[in-house]
Amino acid sequence: MNDFDWAAMADLLEREGEAHGPYVEQALEQLRHLTPRRILDIGSGPGVAACRLAAAFPLAEVTAVDGAAELLARAAERAERLGVRLRTEAAEFPEGLAGLEPADLVWTGQVVHHVGDQQDALDRLAGLLEPGGVLAVVEGGLPARWLPRDIGFGRPGLQDRLAAATAERFSRMRAELPGSVAVVEDWAGMLRTAGLTEVRSKTFLVDHPAPLAPDVRQSVRQMLQRQRTVLGELDADDLATIDRLLDPADPAGIDRRPDVFLLTAKTVHFGRRPAG
Ligand SMILES: C[S@@+](CC[C@H](N)C(=O)[O-])C[C@H]1O[C@@H](n2cnc3c(N)ncnc32)[C@H](O)[C@@H]1O
């Protein structure tokens, strides 16, 4: 695994997964016609999508797979709390994928970009499918937005600069991954290269208008807090603006201002393993 401390991000991942729930629900609508017996959620994290899969396909055996034992423990707790059946299995990607039982539906959300050789990862994921099985890969979409362009202090356009710094950090992260391979990130083309057919990409909106419910607002706070910690590119003025936004006592801060929203879009790439 790379240098992300995934276990320490458990809260953020779980809350973000909940805030982004609307896209998973819409994507699952696209899969309602399936009757999978076995489902894998590869890189499940704390199991938010895995539990939705388990609820949508109650007759299926759903397994959350991840490299972080702490996150799998959270996924199991979450499943118990929600009353859905979920198995967990620890595996490191990509090597550990070989040890998994094949499945009729393989879901993987925002994980492939954390593996050095993304085409190889997709080949291995496609290799986990039973004949006729479906792979759903969440990659791409649009960066989240949550602030107006002008927030009344600091230089307008903070959100764009956060997005630019995040994109820079992302490129650095990819270049530093073990076995990193540069590839044209044509996800549909990569699924076809992995031998899948009926490939299509569909983008789903996550739209939480202001005023935000407290849990979604908390997710925005955690995102901004993380960006404050990991983004080295921001200048002193922007850092001061972010510190003011993160001040719980400030009426113009993220916790109290009325105009915070959450808008993002997630693209899911679907492909099917030929039946015969
Ligand atoms: C960005 S999170 C995505 C969590 C969830 N799928 C979602 O969409 O919110 C990436 C997940 O992949 C797992 N992961 C990343 N790289 C991994 C690797 N090389 N081996 C095993 N797990 C890995 C992390 O532990 C984390 O739970």
UniProtKB/TrEMBL annotation:
Transmembrane segments: none annotated. It holds the Pfam family Methyltransf_12. Keywords: Methyltransferase, Transferase. It comes from Streptomyces cinnamoneus. The keyword rRNA processing does not apply. This is SAM-dependent methyltransferase. Residues 40-135 form the Methyltransferase type domain. GO terms for molecular function: methyltransferase activity. GO terms for biological process: antibiotic biosynthetic process; methylation. CDD domains: AdoMet_MTases.
